[in-house]
UniProtKB/TrEMBL annotation:
GO annotation, cellular component aspect: cell outer membrane
Domain TonB-dependent receptor plug: 84-182
Species this protein is from: Rhodoferax sediminis
UniProt xrefs under CDD domains: ligand_gated_channel (cd01347)
Domain TonB-dependent receptor-like beta-barrel: residue ranges: 264-731
Superkingdom in the source lineage: Bacteria
Compartment list: Cell outer membrane
Higher taxonomy: Bacteria, Pseudomonadati, Pseudomonadota, Betaproteobacteria, Burkholderiales
A molecular function (GO) term: signaling receptor activity
Membrane-topology descriptor: Multi-pass membrane protein
BP GO terms, sorted: siderophore transport
Name listed for the protein in its UniProt record: TonB-dependent siderophore receptor
One family name in Pfam for this protein: Plug
Length: 764
């Protein structure tokens, strides 16, 4: 399908001003996506003044919204209205057009389009896609087609149609968690239009990737679709990011266009990645070494096998009512052999390693030293484990539209059952440094070896540090919940939204080697009522203004690991949010703008005691504002971007020395902008920037990571049967830090250096 700009139309003052605003970078392009042949009636002539050589054939486009529109954003979660303007919360939808244009192949890279979202490390180590949203961890707030996707693994985009980010506490809609928001992955579904696309890409880092997307109608009411991915090589410019991944995602849809539709989905994925724990802190900042420097061993690896099966049955009872039942089963096993830079120290003449001063042992702090970096060493610590995660969830929902007098209702009632299990067998490797033992006799700290700070050895894990089994953590949890939500349309301009959800969350955990911070067993039952309320004023179809209030809760055993160390589990953290905002559709709906101000408060935040146990005495408050834009400014120019300001404060300490501090990995200001411009129907260019102000790597604010701006660019050539695209990442080779890991004083993972990817997509 040819890509082209659309016919020029009247320019509104807002459109013209936005064009001037987003033209500053000087390089734009329009996203390319497959387009099927259309009838001659869809042919158009170029806009007045368009640069189109006479040798070019007439351009063909769809009469409706194009597949490559950045603003083609309709919500897919059944618990929410399809129209974003009817949702009294901030929502960002990253569709396939945006991901393809940017060359985003992982969930983490696609989510860089959401200011206020940062990448972090998981509790107990860095595994998988771990996200902080609006200053709070969202590790358990990732969903797949509206069902919880809790396991730790690296998530790819090959089977995704879009990614939806709902800001703010949302337990009424999604259950436990969602303090900062919810990330929902929307998978590709079969359609009645035959389509095939193969894409091959190669990166200057050494990564080669191939994807296939095949959609085949089986009848007038049934279709089959399968997405396939394989990739191998170095994912980034770092010394330790080799991977070898492959996956397949089949789906079958029956009864398309009939009152009863059945959708069956699956995901099978195998990942073999190399973990990156970044660099340790020194003198209040990430240690100043070459950005490529890594401190793991060459035989480190994280192997994950992911299996997910989904079944959805939708039945239309009447023209205004329907019922749906969704079942989702996930099974993920991760075998991790990982090594992290635990700290920096010196080595005496006799070969004894001594860590640098880090202040109070109860408060992780930045190591300090006046010695030259060439005289410093890094102590390496093993983080080995085999994790098995399973989850089975079933949701039944009833939707109905009806009237009571002059009031129109859109009613949702639902019932959810869920079961989670978790097993984590820890291992450790105790070794030595220059022949001197790093661990006391009988210890299980897992200090493997030491290596020079500036020039770490690139070797396998030492043979004199064999792997030994440590603690076996087991856990299970059940969820039973009922909820309802009603949207009352008092008039065409005024709507009220209200909902309640009652959750019963029951969890138990056990540890084979109990310690002061890991209880032999704990049981917890939490009964919680979540609330959602909102008011919308929509004076025209192009404007929507809202006020909202929402709550959520996080059980202390939510992640199915012990964070108490006491004989009794802690009460859940409770979260509440207030938000006021507006949403505007301009240019006939081609361009969407949004803005909001909000406050999120978390009470009963867990605070760490000097002995390593926890108490529920902390309070964290985040006050902020955000703005966003998505869609077409003109027929040639598209934009996708946003800005977020977060004023985050630990009101009551969640650890000694944290009162009044800023939560880790929470930048005060962040922004992103991606813009594309169609030079001709065949040629496109694009550019964008991602900005983050400085952040702290730990809650004591003793390690600070500097602000950065990263620029990316794109050049694409399109023909009806194929696309060729060049993406350049980190155009100016900016040295910045990507993921932050609060443990061990606060580690930071250097970001991607300048690199490029060439991709070719061919449509059959």
């Amino acid at each position: 399908m040819n890509r082209s700009y659309r016919p020029a139309g009247p320019r509104t003052p807002v459109a013209l001003s936005l064009l001037g605003l987003f033209s500053v970078p000087g390089a734009f392009a329009q996203q390319a996506a497959p387009q099927a042949p259309v009838t001659p009636s869809a042919q158009i002539q170029p806009a007045p003044g368009a640069v189109v050589p006479q040798t070019l054939r007439p351009v063909q486009i769809k009469a409706s919204a194009e597949d490559n529109d950045f603003g083609a954003n309709a919500n897919s979660v059944s618990r929410l209205p399809a129209e974003l303007r009817d949702i009294p919360q901030s929502v960002t939808v990253i569709n396939q057009a945006v991901m393809q244009s940017q060359g985003a192949t992982s969930l983490a890279s696609a989510l860089r389009n959401v200011p206020g979202l940062t990448i972090g490390g998981a509790e107990g180590g860095q595994i998988g896609t771990n996200i902080n949203l609006n200053g709070f961890s969202a590790r358990t707030d990732v969903f797949l087609d509206g069902a919880r996707d809790r396991a730790q693994y690296y998530r790819d985009t090959f089977a995704l149609d879009s990614i939806e980010v709902l800001m703010g506490p949302s337990s009424m809609l999604f259950g436990r968690g969602s303090t900062g928001g919810v990330i929902n992955q929307v998978t590709k579904k079969p359609t009645l239009k035959a389509a095939d696309e193969v894409q091959v890409s190669a990166s200057t880092t050494g990564l080669v990737r191939t994807t296939l997307d095949h959609n085949q109608p089986l009848s007038d009411t049934a279709a089959f679709r399968v997405a396939v991915m394989g990739q191998q090589g170095d994912a980034t410019t770092r010394d330790q990011t080799k991977l070898q991944d492959f996956g397949i995602a089949p789906s079958l849809k029956l009864g398309i266009g009939t009152p009863t539709q059945i959708t069956l989905t699956g995901l099978l994925q195998h990942n073999r990645d190399m973990p990156d724990y970044g660099v340790p802190p020194l003198n209040g900042a990430p240690v100043n070494v070459n950005p490529k420097t890594a401190y793991g061993f060459t035989d480190d690896r994280t192997i994950s096998d992911i299996g997910a099966l989904g079944a959805l049955v939708e039945h239309k009872l009447t023209p205004t009512s329907s019922i749906r039942n969704q079942t989702q089963y996930n099974n993920v096993t991760t075998n991790a052999r990982e090594t992290a830079p635990q700290g920096i120290g010196t080595i005496s003449a006799s070969g004894v390693y001594t860590p640098l001063s880090t202040g109070s042992t109860a408060v992780p702090a930045a190591a300090t030293s006046a010695l030259p970096l060439s005289q410093l060493w890094v102590r390496q610590q093993s983080h080995d484990r085999v994790i098995h995660d399973t989850s089975l969830f079933n949701l039944t929902e009833f939707n109905a539209k009806f009237e009571t007098g002059a009031v129109r209702h859109a009613l949702l009632a639902g019932f959810e059952l869920g079961r989670d299990t978790y097993n984590n067998q820890a291992y450790y490797r105790n070794g030595s440094c220059n022949g001197t033992a790093l661990n006391p006799a009988g210890g299980t700290s897992g200090y493997v070896a030491c290596t020079p700070l500036l020039d770490p050895a690139r070797t396998n894990s030492p043979g004199n540090a064999p792997s030994a089994a440590g603690n076996l953590a087991t856990a299970s949890a059940t969820t039973v919940a009922a909820y309802f939500n009603d949207t009352l349309e008092l008039s065409p301009q005024f709507k009220l939204v209200g909902g309640l959800r009652q959750d019963r969350y029951s969890a138990s955990i056990g540890n084979s080697i109990p310690t002061a911070t890991a209880a032999a067993s704990l049981n917890q039952v939490v009964n919680f009522t979540s609330v959602r309320a909102g008011a919308l004023w929509q004076p025209t179809k192009a404007q929507s203004y809202y006020l909202s209030y929402s709550t959520s809760f996080n059980p202390s055993l939510e992640q199915l690991v012990s964070t108490t160390g006491s004989s009794q589990p802690l009460p859940p953290t409770t979260n509440k949010a207030y938000e006021a905002g507006g949403k505007w559709d301009l240019n006939g709906g081609d361009l969407s703008l949004s803005a909001a101000a909000f406050q999120i408060t978390q009470d009963n935040a867990r605070s760490q005691n000097p002995d390593g146990t926890y108490s529920a005495t902390g309070t964290v408050r985040v006050t902020g504002a955000r703005a966003g834009a998505a869609g077409r400014v003109t027929d040639r120019l598209q934009v996708f971007g946003g800005y977020t300001h977060l004023n985050a404060t630990i009101v009551d300490g969640i650890a000694p020395g944290t009162n009044g501090m800023v939560p880790a990995n929470t930048p005060k200001d962040s922004a992103s902008l991606w813009s594309t411009y169609a030079i001709t129907p065949q040629w496109e260019v694009g550019a964008g920037a991602t900005y983050s102000s400085s952040r702290f790597a730990n809650n004591t604010n003793l390690v600070q990571v500097g602000a950065y701006t990263r620029w990316d660019a794109m050049l694409a050539y399109h023909q009806p049967k194929y696309d060729i695209r060049l993406n350049v990442f980190n155009l100016f080779n900016t040295n910045y830090y990507d993921a932050l890991i609060p443990s061990d004083g606060g580690r930071a993972v250097p970001g991607l250096g300048r690199s490029a990817t060439v991709s070719v997509a061919y449509r059959f």
